[in-house]
Amino acid sequence: MPTRTGDEGGHVQRDTIVALSSAPGKGAIAIVRLSGARAAEIAGKIFHPNNAAAPPENRKLRVGKFAAPGGRAFDEGMAVLMTGPDSFTGEDMAELYCHGGPAVVQALLSAACDAGARPAAPGEFTRRAFLEGKIDLVQCESVADLISAETARAARAALGHLEGGLTKALEAIWGKIIEVGAHLEAAIDFPDEFEPGAGPAPPGGPMGQSELAGRFSVIAGDLAALEKTYRSGRILREGGRVAILGRPNAGKSTLLNYLLGTKRAIMSPIPGTTRDTVEEVCDIGGIPVRLIDTAGLRDTGDPVELEGTDRARRAAASADLCLVVIDAAAGPEEVEWAAREIGGLDAPVILAANKMDLPRANLPGENEIPARICAISALTGEGMDRLRDLIAASLSGEDGGGDDQRLLTRERHRDLVVRCRKAAENGRAALERGLSPELIAVDLNEGQRALSELLGRDYGQDLLDKIFSTFCIGK
Amino acid sequence: MPTRTGDEGGHVQRDTIVALSSAPGKGAIAIVRLSGARAAEIAGKIFHPNNAAAPPENRKLRVGKFAAPGGRAFDEGMAVLMTGPDSFTGEDMAELYCHGGPAVVQALLSAACDAGARPAAPGEFTRRAFLEGKIDLVQCESVADLISAETARAARAALGHLEGGLTKALEAIWGKIIEVGAHLEAAIDFPDEFEPGAGPAPPGGPMGQSELAGRFSVIAGDLAALEKTYRSGRILREGGRVAILGRPNAGKSTLLNYLLGTKRAIMSPIPGTTRDTVEEVCDIGGIPVRLIDTAGLRDTGDPVELEGTDRARRAAASADLCLVVIDAAAGPEEVEWAAREIGGLDAPVILAANKMDLPRANLPGENEIPARICAISALTGEGMDRLRDLIAASLSGEDGGGDDQRLLTRERHRDLVVRCRKAAENGRAALERGLSPELIAVDLNEGQRALSELLGRDYGQDLLDKIFSTFCIGK
Which of A233, B108, B145, B284 would staple A407 via disulfide (CB 3.0–4.6 Å)? Predict the structure, then answer.
């Protein structure tokens, strides 16, 4: 059960909330969920099982009809009770399965409210699961990530978090901090043994300064390793932005279509965040990739073309990866152009030398320009598998082949991990400067607070409001 | 079990189908359904219950993880088995409740297909329920109607059909046809007793001609009564089209906004079917009403204004009801204009005399013009409750206050009921002309065939394809 600084939480009898929990719109079936002390009672007022004589059984589906309290039935379907604490929220819950039409759903929600429920706020079911101590904050966030996952790999990574992958990594660090804290307290109580060069402590006794400093280093190192996972974690969660750059007629559009065509299933155009590009999403090696097509780059005085070039450069500046496309058959000056262009880019670069089906200019070596180089033909598909592998490898980063189950995926994670790491580094520096154990304990507490906030062991209403406001209603 | 003319149906072991059964898009939870002989086996390959030791129990939810066969878990959720014939389709079914994200759903559908299921065609679950004799065709259609119902009243009407309201009315007529058929057969076997004016048959004997003619009249009358329900049934299912007509500044827009504002919940703009009007849907007395705003009508030579006037007239021509709005404070010539205009309209008309908060011209009596008249102020809301009642009464028609549970709602219903009624009338006419029982039996068979087709007791693949192709996938 998390410690709370607000007035929420704990084994409080909360009011009963209701929401549509399946996607809005028309479908064969919709799910309306109730959670709270009166869930079973309210469900009983609006759901009338066909076999009313049989007593309701936990988690057993019953067939019956839905009606407003005292009203005529408007739908038939199924309902189930899930008694707490062994439910998602930890409270008593009911799930109602009605026909998936907007009017039916609206009638069922109204009926539930007439019977005493109130409409749930976004994420309120998950928030209750958190307040009941069923899952921590990192796990709460992973619930939202599972829903918005754009590839199966992203979903598996989110499930890893929900199963406690990142939680366990953070708890291991937490344990080390607690251990160091115990030694610091001992040092405060027995200051004589806490001296520079005092050497390893006797079993059960306080650690010496150098050993403590070593422990701080380990903690900082563990946190730094987690920090490094942020880029690939963020890309897996939000998608990697890949800007496709090149001069007109280099084959950018053919390349884009080829990449999109390989996995049309999860593709959908979304308006670019900069409002001047349209992104297309595809799955490359399990990573959701947002391909940003740009206008051709060329030296021009024409204001319209200049505007296109500006947009291309802005897209490149915000990209996780730039894909520079050249027409390798166009002669050496195309290669020279690319080398110049790549020199000006901040993001990692892959140089796609297109039209390899035609006689082509010599390509530079990978030691000559700061880019991976891949000869392709967007027309015949030659080299495209390797290009996809290079894109996936670049977006996965150094942790790409590793463990998706313990990546930092949100800025909130990264910021708090950085805060904790800096506290550990400050602690070590303070030790080395021979400061008193009391002062070092201040740094340690700061680190502990950061991890507490990350896991939601200590939280305020504001933090919860901020996190759950981004959830969909019904979750 | 329906009789089939195709190769489908009956207690066949069908392959196992899978589909997303909740609405597409993002939600907290999604439902993926399986139906067919291998439903339980396939579910067992992709769902791994946390408490695997406990044997699965019919209709009991289990918590667990989802994975492709042999793959790593990508989500956690719940699953339930529903063994046939006591299931919606009558076959073995499984329902899987996963997190409602597109990638998770896609992964789960792929996993099910990898495990041996195939993607379901639109309406295939309901089609199987029909083929297994769980519901008739009219009930199948009501499933689609429940989902697309736009008001709670429309949903209740659809539920009435699903519960067999219309089916019972049709079966009562069917019973009368069968009875007449038995007497006709007797008449064929004992032609001597089947003579004009032979009077009531002895108990158990064949009916005389006049008595049979009376029976045909009753059948035709029952069918004619059903036919009359088609307008209100169609309007409840598809929505009633109400064209708002009036001269500029009569207050059409204020009126429209007032009507819409009263029930914004289920309102959404939809593109007009004629592409030149935008319809707004609202709930008036439980009826989904499509309000069609038109340009002001005025005598003009300006081509742009003429085009607007043309569109208004087209909207009026296709409307179920015209709402003519006048500025009652504008003087008698506004009333005269309305009287002329109303004379040219085919649909029922309500004359809304707006601005009753101002001093106004004398209104005509309801016996002077073919319209209901209602003084309103769209500004203050005065008279608006009565206007809504008048709109609802006009769209409900003569059956409005009656029974929503046995309305004809589709053209298919109406056409077949008309065919059956005409056959009954032909039969009576043939009797009256003294034709032989064999010839009269031809008419009777024709009527029986029409009812058979309506209920789906005799069907071809084409009919089923046509009906179920309009269903959503997953239903």
Answer: A233
